[in-house]
Task: structure prediction
Amino acid sequence: MSITDLSRSLGVEPTSTRVRIRPAVVADAAWLAEVSRASFAPRLRDYLTSAQPGIGRFWEVVLAHPGSFPGRTFLVAETGDGDRLGFADLTLVEPDRAHLSYICVVEAARGRGVAGALLRAYAAGEPQVVAMRLDVFADNVPARVLYDRLGFAAEATSTWWVADLTLDGVTPGADVRLDGLHAARAWFDTYGFGEFAVAVGETTVKLGRPSARVLRCFDPAILTQPAVLAAVVREFPELDRVLVMTPGEDAPPSAVGELRAVNRSLRMSTSRIRARLDVRDPLGPG
Ligand SMILES: CC(C)(COP(=O)(O)OP(=O)(O)OC[C@H]1O[C@@H](n2cnc3c(N)ncnc32)[C@H](O)[C@@H]1OP(=O)(O)O)[C@@H](O)C(=O)NCCC(=O)NCCS
Result:
């Protein structure tokens, strides 16, 4: 698409299409949520917190209180007229390494270097960052092209396994205690997702609810404990599926229903992000 076509599709004059990058503000939160949700395949939305409508309210808090989220940077790309084109969400995980949580460009503006411009602006603002890591869906061709060109290499694969919860006749374990229920309910009511924990004797296992119907098990071993899951479902009867993410491509054992692979994700990283973005340290020589 030419710049002129892009401008027309965005309803702006061609002369005003120069991309500007700025920090996101609270007023961007609803738009961030909308473009984020739209960018995910509908079949995956139930498994992703950032595809829930409430993620906008969640990001509002992040954007309104940056001091409480140190190292997190949300950048927005826009035209000279202020038409938003895309965003990037990054977190400093080590002094010289950033995690790219998400980068997204509106469909009409893709393939014109907006993603590259967002990453270049981030690198310019964080001159100490030389390394970057991210997770990308294995079948996301445009994103993988972008990351390959930026020198990212795959380090590990993980598979997202889903089973329909079939717990008919399973008695909820009497020794199962749910931790953090009030917080989980409040989170869910406000944002549409949340986390809690389940304690069985001395062992505590973290669980998540990325959407109304999905229970994320951070420890796949819980799939072999139907009585524990039955206790969770008694609390949250809307749950009808479990999600586990495990390294590699082999399904973990399950006693709660047959697992199907719904997604494959790659962890990628580079230790030379500046070289590929061609960013010079503004304080350095040359
Ligand atoms: C991935 C995404 C952010 C890329 O944004 P973009 O602004 O279109 O990317 P750029 O224009 O900066 O392109 C970067 C490179 O990728 C290439 N590229 C972009 N889209 C492509 C596509 N559909 N097919 C093949 N290559 C593509 C470009 O040619 C460019 O290479 P070049 O610099 O050598 O020309 C965008 O496609 C998007 O928002 N997708 C939906 C959200 C998403 O999947 N985000 C990634 C999550 S991990």
